[in-house]
Each structure stands twice: as structure tokens, then as C-alpha cells.
Design goal:
Elements: E1 10-15, H1 22-31, H2 41-48, H3 57-61, H4 65-69, H5 74-90, E2 95-100, H6 112-122, E3 134-142, H7 148-168, E4 174-180, H8 192-201, E5 206-209, H9 215-224, E6 228-231, H10 239-248, E7 252-254, H11 256-261, H12 273-279, E8 283-285, H13 297-308, H14 312-325, H15 330-344
Parallel strand pairs: 1-2, 2-3, 3-4, 5-6, 6-7, 7-8
């Protein structure tokens, strides 16, 4: 079973606020004079991780409130990213895309731009890494009733940093935007103007879709022009939409442990990963939230090996899919393949 650990090399769907350790939180609560419900790491872990028998996505999302309180200052954001990068490096990852929503970090008057700059500063930690080749950032817009202007600002910020990257030839930074939050409460169709703006500005995007809502949510994301789909588990509910996804080669960012927790699927036997791979879907495996789901990328691959008897060939295909799906240039993808290929030849 442990032979599957070395396939966990890339994580494309990783939320910063859902991946803080209890130890980091206790340290940074003290620095910011924020009172936590408990000082005991084990007890705190239970408060910031979702139960295995979550009722639904909305209960899962409740785990984020305590972490968000601690990420309202630039120095905390920067250090949280540095800490996460160090852990990913220790786990042997080669590439990761960390996502966060700048508009959720404005409670103490930090601007969205300051939040993005703080996170990008944290990326400098990659320079000290042994395993990590690169880390990039995805900016999340949020599903909500009255936050269109904040979402527009997020898209414009992504465009600003993408443009800056292109002109300065900076290797690390913002690569895309996303739409996250309560999918069933705020259907994807409501956010068409945001993605019209993203298309107009040339900002690539991925969307959380087909998780708490059905296949039609994935259809909306495809219609908008999404480069990838976050989760996308429920696309199998509509053969026509699934066929379109396959035809367009739009990758799915699947997050097995999280998908089981949020009741997107009832049990491992019902998890559609193999079915998708056999159909030609560009499926990838990711963690979603390392702390909220009590997981890491190697754990995801081990669980798949244990519960659905994932084969080594399938695991290799998932890694190749992740390289292909990444928001990297073709040259960067080739370099990543060159780094990863020797590790995939192990039995």
C-alpha cells in the first residue's frame, strides 16, 4: 500500500485557510492576542476539522471560521503560506497551487491587494525548499448575495498580477481565479458577469462546480470558459455534459477525502474516479483542505489504493493529468515532467 506514496507529487486544489496546523494557529493567536476556544492542539484540531459524517458542504464550510480569524494581518498570511510550503516540501511535493479568497481577509482593514501581496511574499519560502519546484496562487471569488464588487476586484487583481508577471518574467505568482463557497445556496449561473470580466481581461479560471450542486453547475462553468473544474464529481449525472467535458479535455480537480466528507458521494465504492479515467476525463487527485479533511496528498493516493484498488498505471495517469492541468507554461510543465518522471518508475 505504501508504494503509492510517491505519486502524491502535485496538489492543484489546496485552500490555505483549510490547511493551517493547530500548532501554527496557537502560536499566531498568541502573537495577535486572539483568544482561541482551547490551547490544546488536539482539541483545537477537532474544532477546525470537519467530522467524517458531515451533514453536507455547508457543515464542512463551518470549520473555516476559526482559521480565518487568524489570517487578517499581512504578516500572519505571509507566515501561514511559508509554513504550508515547508510542510508540502517535507512531504516531497514537486508542485502546488495554493488558493485563497482575498476578500475574506479584510476584517482589520487589510485591502485585497495587500492580502495578495502578503501571500506572494510567503512564496519566497520556495527558494529554500528541497523538493518543491514551484508554488503558484489562485485567487478565489466567493459565492454570496451581495459581493459582486469584491469579486470584480479579485478578478482585476488577478489580471494586474498576471500582467506584472508577464512583463517582469517573474516565475512565481498569481495564475488564475476561482469561485468557491456554498454552491447549492448560490448557483453558478448567478456569477456569469464575473467570468465575463475574467474572459475580457484574459484571466484563466477554475470553478468549484458539481460538488453541492448537480451536473448543470458544471455545464455553467464550461459555458463560462472554465479551464478546470473544482471537484466536478456530479457531472456523471448527465451523460451529455460529461461528454462535453471529455471532448473539451477540461480537467477535474477531484478531492476524494473531502468529497466523501461533504456527502458528494455516499461511500468509496461510489467514487467515480476510475469510471472518469476510463471514459477519458482528465481527472486529477488533490487534498482540498489538509486540516479540515485531515489529509495530505500521499494519504489521498493511499486511500484510493486501499478503497478502490487504484493501480500504479492509473496513479501515473493521474500525475500526468495533474502536470497537464496545471496553470504552468508548456516549458514549466516539461521541466516538471523531467523532475517527476524518475520518481514514477518506482514499483
Amino acid at each position: 500500500m505504501h508504494g503509492f506514496s510517491h505519486y502524491g507529487l502535485i496538489d492543484l486544489h489546496l485552500h490555505l485557510d483549510g490547511s493551517l496546523t493547530p500548532e501554527w494557529m496557537i502560536t499566531w493567536a498568541a502573537k495577535q492576542q486572539i483568544t482561541l476556544p482551547t490551547q490544546d492542539p488536539t482539541a483545537l484540531k477537532s474544532l477546525i476539522s470537519a467530522p467524517a459524517d458531515c451533514a453536507d458542504l455547508n457543515q464542512y464550510l463551518a470549520s473555516f471560521e476559526i482559521p480565518l480569524q487568524l489570517l487578517q494581518r499581512p504578516e500572519a498570511l505571509t507566515n501561514a503560506v511559508e509554513d504550508l510550503i515547508q510542510r508540502l516540501d517535507q512531504q516531497g511535493l514537486r508542485y502546488a497551487e495554493i488558493r485563497f479568497a482575498p476578500q475574506l481577509h479584510q476584517r482589520e482593514n487589510m485591502s485585497q491587494q495587500q492580502a495578495v501581496e502578503a501571500v506572494l511574499q510567503g512564496l519566497q519560502a520556495v527558494k529554500k525548499c528541497q523538493s518543491l519546484y514551484r508554488v503558484n496562487v489562485i485567487l478565489c471569488c466567493m459565492r454570496g448575495a451581495d459581493n459582486q464588487s469584491q469579486n470584480e476586484e479579485t478578478v482585476r487583481l488577478a489580471h494586474q498580477f498576471l500582467t506584472q508577471k508577464a512583463t517582469q518574467n517573474e516565475p512565481m505568482g498569481v495564475v488564475a481565479v476561482d469561485l468557491a463557497g456554498a454552491e447549492a445556496l448560490y448557483p453558478t449561473a448567478q456569477f456569469a458577469p464575473i467570468f465575463q470580466l475574467a474572459n475580457h481581461l484574459g484571466v484563466p479560471f477554475t470553478l468549484h462546480a458539481g460538488e453541492a450542486d448537480g451536473a448543470e453547475s458544471v455545464q455553467q462553468a464550461l459555458d463560462f470558459g472554465a479551464k478546470r473544474i473544482g471537484h466536478g464529481i456530479r457531472v456523471r449525472e448527465n451523460a451529455h455534459i460529461l461528454a462535453q467535458l471529455i471532448r473539451q479535455k477540461t480537467p477535474l480537480e477531484m478531492c476524494p477525502c473531502s468529497n466523501l466528507q461533504t456527502k458528494t458521494v455516499a461511500c468509496w465504492e461510489d467514487y467515480p474516479l476510475r469510471h472518469y479515467l476510463q471514459q477519458g476525463v482528465v481527472a486529477t487527485v488533490n487534498t482540498d483542505n489538509m486540516t479540515v479533511s485531515q489529509t495530505h496528498i500521499q494519504h489521498e493516493f493511499r486511500q484510493l489504493a486501499q478503497h478502490i484498488q487504484l493501480s500504479h498505471e492509473e496513479a501515473k495517469q493521474l500525475v500526468e493529468n495533474a502536470i497537464q492541468a496545471s496553470f504552468l507554461t508548456d516549458e514549466e510543465k516539461d521541466h516538471l515532467r523531467h523532475l517527476i518522471r524518475p520518481q514514477l518508475t518506482q514499483p
